[in-house]
Design goal:
Length: 248
Amino acid sequence: SSNQAVIGLDGTVYPPLEDMTVSVMYRVVCKDDPEDFAVDHFKEVSVTVPGRYTASPSDNARPSVVPGIREWKGHSGNFSLTGSSRIVVEDSALHETAEQIRFYFQQMLGRDLPIVTAQANAGDLVLCLDDLPELGEEGYAIEIADQVTVSAHRPKGALYAGVTLTQILYQDSAHASLPKGLIRDYPQYEVRACMLDVARFYMPLDYLGEITRYMAYFKLNEIRLHINDNGGENDISFRVESRICLQL
């Protein structure tokens, strides 16, 4: 499956927000002899999976972020941050993630939202974990209404949701407004890397830390450093975890 968040490898179909075309390969198995099967490795089948919603002329346009949102259903109207907006954490496992999202809001938007465990109100950003295995470790769903609700299968997905919201808010002149709608987002590629050649050009550690912060802001998750030219394999790589970005 070219999109396992819509058609899983076990054949399960997860309805997308909008019509999605997925390329699949399949195996034909003899019912009487499971060892007798055939696979065409050179032919894909395109399957269009109907979306849950249909577009309306009054829908808000799809927000522009990097990388682009995979699925979007626009509603009408806008959500606005206020002086009393908060980050509401519904699962204790998301407290560190909430701090990281708060950091982005402070650095990129000039807004400092307190983190609370309380009943959500209009204008709040709500973080919760949900049973969404089809979205994987880095996928997430967002509902932008009178409050913004982020649902993810794992904390990293919730963090990337916070990055998406930060990018959308950054484009508003007041850094306060979001178009109402639904987002279902997940990476197309597991590894999204950047290579830096520190063998030919000295890069201070502070500069590397700055680069990892930029990378995390655009959901790049691996940095590779070419450390010398003395033959052989001399590259090292590590995951750009958000914790590293904050400490550096």
